[in-house]
Amino acid sequence: MYQKKEVSVEEALSHIRDGSRIITSLCAQAPFLLLKHLHEVADTGKKFKIYSNMNLQAYPYLSDEKYRDRIDIDCLFQMVGDRVGHQKGLVNYVPGHLHDGTWRWAEINRPNVFIGAVSSMDENGYCRFSLSNIHEQAFARKADLVICEVNPNLPQVNGETEIHISDIDYVVASKEPVPVLPEQSRLSPIDEKIGEHVASLVKDGDTIQLGIGKMPDAVANSLLDKKDLGVHTELMSDAIYRLTEAGVVTNGRKTLHRGKSIATFAMGSQKLYSMMNQNPSVWIMSGNYVNHPGVIAQNDNMVSINTAIEVDLTGQVCSESIGSVQYSGTGGAVDTAQEASASKGGRSIIALHATAQKGKCSTINAVQTPGAIVTLSRNNVDYIVTEFGIAPMRGRNVRQRMDNLIAIAHPDFREEIKKAAEKTLLR
């Protein structure tokens, strides 16, 4: 069956019809070979719409302006490749949460073509969406046309990851390298201090969610003395890998999926991918499940740890735009923060540097930068942390929040922030 379905890239893409609505697999699970050639469909005169997210490369279909009138691109979460297209006006941002954003988009746009990458087929005819099932399995099953590149470099990961070869219309052989992130560089003293503050809010036996970047790395380093942590997170990262290898993550006290680390996608080093390969204690599951509000809060003592671009003195958080310029997306920030706060014994934590642009501006301000997107409302955050300390938000009135946040702002900006607050917030 497999051999009968294997075709060249050119033949596989030739089956995409004019007016198709395409959805793809994401991030490290993206069909890199197929996406490098996807613009060739438009070269034949066909037009199509594509829901394309978390791209690590600026493929021609994303970045070449000659396709402006033939390729319509929607994006729920921008990474480096998507930003190139967005800056040129080629990529349209779709606001939405990770747990339901794709499904809401699909209600309107009804995708009928799925293009993805999968692992090698096993002896039972199953391939796997090993490094992302944010929406992959669900929409591969619904599509009229399913094209997958089969990549032996992808690990075999357990959970809700399987797709049978009989459900794939065309396969393309691929040996594209799986993208890896650089291993942890030396943390700055600021990162280390923030990590220490956050770690003081985490208890033995908690279940954690960590975002991506240096901030989670710093937090993970400071959690190495904890015991029996559990993992229920959208992203399986190197930070989680290090805690697992150190024996800190055991998942032994989890309320939900005890004994298993649960995530909906993964991105990190080759060591992370090797650890996940055929590991019965690591599961990738659907984003619609992992980040669902009715699921996250089932974990007692759930702690979400995310970062931000800026916060205001009432506790509103912007984590997706720089001013009015869309930088990333809402992702799972609201899903995880809101439900961690709602869980029994849970906490929602936002950790960020007190300054940005090499100390030129404060990330804590009386009000948000004009045009900035409020990702998390002031009702969704329990603690905000910088290198200067911890600002409790839960149950505090606006005056108390202001005082707490000014106390963790950089000393060079505290007086300025206080004066601005008196003009704008205390009238």
Describe, in plain words, how this protein is organized in 3D:
The structure is a single chain. The chain has 2 domains: 1-173, 3-Layer(aba) Sandwich (Glutaconate Coenzyme A-transferase), CATH 3.40.1080; 189-423, Glutaconate Coenzyme A-transferase, CATH 3.40.1080.20. Helix 9 packs across helix 10. The protein is globular and about 70 Å long. The strands form 8 sheets. Strands 4-3-2-1-5-7-10 form a 7-stranded parallel β-sheet. A 6-stranded mixed β-sheet has the order 12-11-17-22-26-27. A 3-stranded parallel β-sheet has the order 8-16-14, with no helix packed on it. The protein has 17 helices and 27 strands. The longest helix is centred in the last third of the chain and has 14 residues, at 411-424. With 427 residues, the protein is of the alpha/beta class.
In short, what is this structure?
With 427 residues, this protein is of the alpha/beta class.
Mean of all residue-level pLDDT scores: 96
Number of strands: 27
Strand content: 15-25%
* CATH classification, class level of the largest domain: Alpha Beta
Stretches where pLDDT is under 50 for at least 5 consecutive residues are none
What structural class results from the helix and strand content? alpha/beta
Q: Main sheet: which strands, in order across?
A: 4-3-2-1-5-7-10
- Continuous helix count: 17
- Label the overall shape: globular
Please estimate the helix content.
Answer: 25-40%
Superfamily (CATH H level) name of the largest domain: Acetyl-CoA hydrolase/transferase C-terminal domain
Q: First CA to last CA: what distance?
A: 72 Å
Which oligomeric form is depicted?
single chain
Total domain modules: 2
Radius of gyration: 22 Å
CATH structural fold name of the largest domain: Glutaconate Coenzyme A-transferase
Largest sheet: 7 strands, parallel
CATH architecture of the largest domain: 3-Layer(aba) Sandwich
